[in-house]
Amino acid sequence: MGWWLSRALLLSAVAVAAVAQQQLSPGFYSATCPALQAVVRRGMARAVRREPRMGASILRLFFHDCFVNGCDASVLLDDVPGSFTGEKNAGPNANSLRGYDVVDAIKAQVEASCNATVSCADILALAARDAVNLLGGPSWVVPLGRRDARNTSANAANTNLPPPDASLSTLVSMFRGKGLDARDLTALSGAHTVGQARCSVFRSHIYNDSSATINATFAAGLRATVCPFTGGDGNLAPLEPRAPDAFDNGYFRDLVDRRVLLRSDQALYGSGGAGNGTTDALVRAYAANGTAFAADFAAAMVRMGNLVGSGGGEVRLNCRRVN
């Protein structure tokens, strides 16, 4: 059999497998790829050991994928000139999303174990779970069976992802549009207990907002060291300065103290407006009880991970391009 015929049959099998409705189940690959979760865990452990910040990056990659047409790995697709401009270079993602090479490496290992079986979307969902756990956060059972998108949209990324200066009412509305409530919003925002942000996305918060919105000493320190009035756009600061690589409830203590980088984060506490009574109470509860935060975060990650779009799709052999 010629190589071209073998590949054609392989791609045909992948396409046929993808037409079924996406029915997510933790045991989806139990028979077809039993080593899957161990392979993903090893890949993420290597990545986080090499660079702890990568755990936050993979988590963010998953969030940005799920909020644009569901968790379908569309964010991993490279642009195709003349066909589509993808999500990678959309405003919220360009120069900030990272970790594509980590997903590629894990995908290669998975393919070596069980060829043309596991979607990139499921690999990313598992990698995000392991990223959180490897940084000291909770673990959870990940329902599997997602399919990979065949196209992607920069416009959808530009309109579906919350901006860093979003008001609470905007955040509540955007999450509600995904079937997620104020508890999900508050818990998922706790992902900012790890990771970093560029000066360009928090400059307005530390220069233009009052001491009622941001701690004055905290803002002055950032202005003096990381984020000058002009220049320094790419300079990084930790989203949670107490323990930037530890997945804990420090972010919520920072919210209470008004010591967070992003205006959209501080909007969850003390900002007034729609949903504020609920988010204020949740912030206080999570600041006081890390176990409660961990449980609600894990549950919210499962709910967000269930956003699988309209169904269909395929199992990509390369996460960066359609088959």
From TrEMBL:
Ca(2+) 2 binds at residues 193, 248. Keywords: Calcium, Disulfide bond, Glycoprotein, Heme, Hydrogen peroxide, Iron, Metal-binding, Oxidoreductase, Peroxidase, Secreted, Signal. Disulfide bonds join 33-114, 66-71, 120-319, 199-227. It catalyses: 2 a phenolic donor + H2O2 = 2 a phenolic radical donor + 2 H2O. It is found in: Secreted. The active site is at residue 64. Binds 1 heme b (iron(II)-protoporphyrin IX) group per subunit. InterPro entries: Haem_peroxidase (IPR002016), Haem_peroxidase_sf (IPR010255), Peroxidase_pln (IPR000823), Peroxidases_AS (IPR019794), Peroxidases_heam-ligand_BS (IPR019793), Secretory_peroxidase (IPR033905). Removal of H(2)O(2), oxidation of toxic reductants, biosynthesis and degradation of lignin, suberization, auxin catabolism, response to environmental stresses such as wounding, pathogen attack and oxidative stress. This is Peroxidase. It comes from Urochloa decumbens. The lineage of its organism: Eukaryota, Viridiplantae, Streptophyta, Embryophyta, Tracheophyta.
